Amino acid sequence: MQPEQYEAWYATQKGSWIGEEEYALLASLLAPIPGETLLDVGCGTGCFTRRFAADAAERNVFGTDIDLNMLRFADAHSAQGIGFVAADACRLPFCDNSFDLVASVTALCFIQDEKQALREMLRVARRRVILGLLNRHSLLYLAKGRCGGQGAYHGARWHTPAEALRLFDGLPGRHAGFGTAIVMSGGKLWSRRLEPLLRRLLPECGAFIAVVADVWPSVQPSNAKET
Q: How far apart are the first and last CA of the chain?
């Protein structure tokens, strides 16, 4: 998908609502503290990077992506003060503990070595890491995710909630929170109004999974990388 197409979808009524619901879940679990720095790994067009930055103007926010077209778009359409760096998520060019917070929104779904990418996120984080993932136990998976995926979901990896929680097994992170959003992904008015109720009734069935973990300071990896 081209950057312009990706951004245009988030500008639609449906895309805007889904983006806000996903971000609200991420922010509630990440619980940022004023003044903290944040890295958005696999930031794409910077859609969520800009949202993180707008929510706390004083926070230093950075984004990385391996796709240069996406990164150029993000840089051109973001306010000054947000830094963008071309980087492979499995080899982040930052020293240990460089950022208070690290986020990655549906990027891990397209990274072959997800464990190594998550290991790198935990390495460069000081306090907390949050992941946004696609839920295999959702209506969206039945509609768009089967047989290799359709459209923007082609080639994506889908996780169950239990698999999402197990991603941190054996890594220096302690699970701190979990939730899902977008039970009905159609974006119709009735589904938007029902979303809070559906989320309470079906807490593990939202199409979007967010899982957050606190970093273990005492066992941080020591293989620092130069900026």
A: 30
Going by C-beta distance under 8 Å and a sequence separation of 6 or more, which residues neighbour residue 173? 122, 129, 213, 214, 215, 216
User: What tokens were used for 140?
Assistant: 């969206």
Position 57 scores a pLDDT of: 63
The pair phi, psi for residue 95, each rounded to 5°, is: -70, 165
Query: Residue 122's pLDDT is what?
Result: 97
Would you call 139 exposed, middle or buried from its count of C-beta atoms within 10 A (0-12, 13-18, 19+)?
A: middle
Q: Which domains does the chain have, with CATH numbers?
A: 3-133+157-181+208-214 (3.40.50.150)
CB count within 10 Å of CB 75 equals 15
The three-class DSSP label of residue 6 is: helix
Q: Are 43 and 84 in contact (CB under 8 A)?
A: yes
* Alpha helices (H) in the chain, listed in sequence order: 3-11, 13-30, 47-55, 68-76, 114-124, 139-140, 161-166, 189-201
Which pLDDT belongs to residue 224? 44
CA triple 206-34-44, angle to 5 deg: 50
Identify the pLDDT of residue 225: 47
Task: Share the mean pLDDT of the chain.
Answer: 92
> Which residue ranges in the chain fall short of pLDDT 70?
57-59, 218-227
Structure tokens at 102: 């690290």
**122 contacts: CB under 8 Å, gap ≥ 6:** 102, 129, 171, 172, 173, 213, 215, 221
CA angle 203, 206, 210 (to 5 degrees): 85
pTM beyond 0.90? yes
